[in-house]
Amino acid sequence: MMRALRNQKIRGMLFQVLTILGLVAFLWYIGSNTMANIEQRGIKSGFDFLSGTAGFEIDEAPIKFSSSDTHGRVFLVGLINTLIITFIGIIFSTILGLIIGVFRLSNNWLIKKLAAAYIDIFRNIPILLQILFWYNVVLRALPSPKQSINFLDSIFMNNRGLYLPIPDLNTTTISVCISVLVVVVGAFFLNKWANKRQEETGKDFPVLLTSLGALIIIPIITYFISGANFNFDYPALKGFNFRGGKVISPEFLALTFALVIYTATFIAEAVRSGIEAVSKGQKEAAASIGLSSYQSLKLVVLPQAIRIAIPPVINQYLNLAKNSSLAAAVGYPEIVTVFAGISLNQTGQAIEILAITMLVYLTISLIVSAILNWFNHKMKIKER
Amino acid sequence: MAVYEQKQALEAPSSTKGAIHWIKENLFSSPLNTIMTLMGFGFLYIIIPPLLQWAYFDANFVGTTREQCTGDGACWVFIKMKMDMFLYGFYPETELWRLKAIVIMFVALVIGLRFIKSGKVKFGIVFSYFIISLILTAGGIFGLESVPTDKWGGLMLTIVVASVGIVFSFPIGIIVAFGRQSNLPIIRSVCVTYVEMIRGVPLITILFMSSVILPLFFPEGISFDKLLRALIGITLFQAAYVAENIRGGLQAIPKGQYEAADAIGLSYWQKMLLVILPQALKVAIPNLAGAFISLFQDTTLVLIIGLFDLLAMVRITAADSHWLGMETEGYVFVTVIFWAFCYGMSRYSNKLEKQFDTNLK
Q1: In this predicted model, what pLDDT tens digit does every residue of B82-119 receive, in sequence order?
Q2: Residue B242 in contact with residue B174, Cβ under 8 Å?
């Protein structure tokens, strides 16, 4: 018996069996307690509540929603709002993060120090504090609708939100949008073609300049061809509030500002460490074979920097998605606020609702890590 | 015979040294740089003077009531009068000496530990400090009056949540990290599932779960304190991140170290605790420090489940009818405190990293 216990394999087996037994006993214990508690408190179980009437209004529903809709639709509204805030947050924090990261490496002393100060200040303040600060201090200090801050009589900013003009959906608008899309897709294929040509012939093609030029010129041409008929719906003050246009709520603004400013600090650091990780020898080698500084950046430094910088940046995107759940503190109706908040309070079915909510975030993070694995695999240095 | 006389070397031309040269090189080296510099100064000019005006020159420092705040700037009197609330929440005034004693002991500890060499003694002292602090804060034994946790608040609650989270998540995280590296498949998959599940969801859902669902898990009669529920949630959350960071450290340890430990006949735990873990922790320090800083920031989330941490105190103190509209001052004050803690921690971790840097390459 004692000898058997000294055998590593047997001990390992024993240890695992004990773990399983312990785990099963624990799950059985909490499971039976939960059943008993639910029964005693008269909480319903199962997923029937998803088709029950919600009975409350949601202010910023991206899809049609009224109080007679179901909790299932509440879930949908929350999910779409989560995706919206994540998408917008990712775009703006990438732009801001890139700018700050490049500033951080600038040879201008003042700009370098300002960027460093930005990073040191904002990454050390809790994100929830930043959200509340924007919401309760900055946006609440804005004037009332009558004294709105006014840009060119078309964009208005007041304590009820940001009012933007929106273009009518007519032929011009749609064709301009389509032309932009076509240029973007075209640029992608142009890039592929240029890369291939360069590998074969060594000739360089100015992809960036060409696509930027096309991005400006082609939509303008489309605009005139399709009738030059941009018709905006302008917001206008009617009575005590604005009508028309698109209103962006203070909750959304506070959340976006805070998420973008906070996440950008991490993206900036990732960009910086990616560029700094490219060894000096690489740049010197590029210079010695006669590449210009733009060529050296494009052909030598960036391809290596991106490989290092992208994984942490993608992780930050995931963090941004998770941090968007803090909307609960200001009441922007994303999934945690409306579904894990109001719906949970109304139905009392905490287990089902929290399980669904957590599953949503788990799915998002599984998708992100799948993308990350794909990227790492694709970017792996191919050794010959 | 001509004698060679060495002449004094000429000084470098004034255009390549001195302050003016530095300014030229670093601020105005090209037209683009000049524009950027001017924009930078412009930005500072827009931000800094009004801020100083508000926070210092026009601010009110003396007085005890709101009416004495007559200047245009900040009313720091509010912070001064509500300081006890910000620091200790609703902790009874007669018992505040207990919290102050803990702070004094902390300072003594930081100084005293420098003179102690033995790691075991150090660990023992820190551990007993932790226990004594818990007893002092909660009370209930040794004739100390019990202070229920709903009276805890402010910076004190923030520190309680953060330190309990850090201290308890550490051992759990180490065990889970070992489990993830273990070659027993069931143990490994249990640990992987735990870490990936927790890391995939936001802390707020875990806090909701620990505050709403946790009570359902236990038989009627066992009731958890609201604070305890939050602490369980935060510790389990943090343990997953600690485990992931330590795993990163473990993976950086060359296989030869494991084999050498096996070769001299160490048992599994001797091998892991005496040989592998000390090296792995050294590698993991920067990431662990990052995880602890974000834990400190994440403690603010407990306000969403109704605990009164430092951030929640802003809303509570500003709701006082004598001090309406003082939220800005409150937020600025709390921001400065959080920033100072987090920045201090990141600086300290940089120092530790350098101190432990035993570059063996």
Answers
A1: 888 888 888 888 788 888 888 888 888 888 888 887 77
A2: yes
Instruction: Give CA–CA dist B299/B205, Å, rounded.
Output: 14
Rounded to an integer, what distance in angstroms lies between the CA atom of residue B310 and that of residue B253? 40
**Does residue A16 sit at the B interface (CB-CB below 8 Å)?**
yes
Q: Is B176 on the interface with A (CB under 8 A)?
A: no
- Of B36, B205, B293, which has the smallest distance from its Cβ to A336's Cβ? B205
pTM score, whole prediction:
0.87
B residues 324..353 contacting A (CB < 8 A): 327-328, 331, 334-335, 338-339, 342-343, 346
Tell me the two tokens of residue B333.
């004050």
Q: Tokens standing for B167?
A: 């201290």
What CATH fold (topology level) applies to the domain B76-91+147-355? Answer: MetI-like fold (1.10.3720)
pLDDT digits (tens, 9 = 90+) for A344-376: 888 888 888 899 999 999 999 999 888 888 888
CA B162 → CA A137, B235, B237, B293, distances in Å?
Answer: 26, 9, 12, 9
The architecture (CATH level 2) of A71-152+250-379 comes to Orthogonal Bundle (1.10)
How many Å apart are CA B168 and CA B171, to the nearest integer? 6
Say which residue the tokens 């929830």 belong to. A128
Q: How many CA atoms within 13 Å lie on the side-chain side of A244?
A: 16
Quote the ipTM score: 0.86
Closest-CA residue to A374 (of A325, A282, A298, A310)? A310
Enumerate the domain spans of chain B: 76-91+147-355, 92-146
Q: Provide the 3-class DSSP secondary structure of residue A236.
A: strand
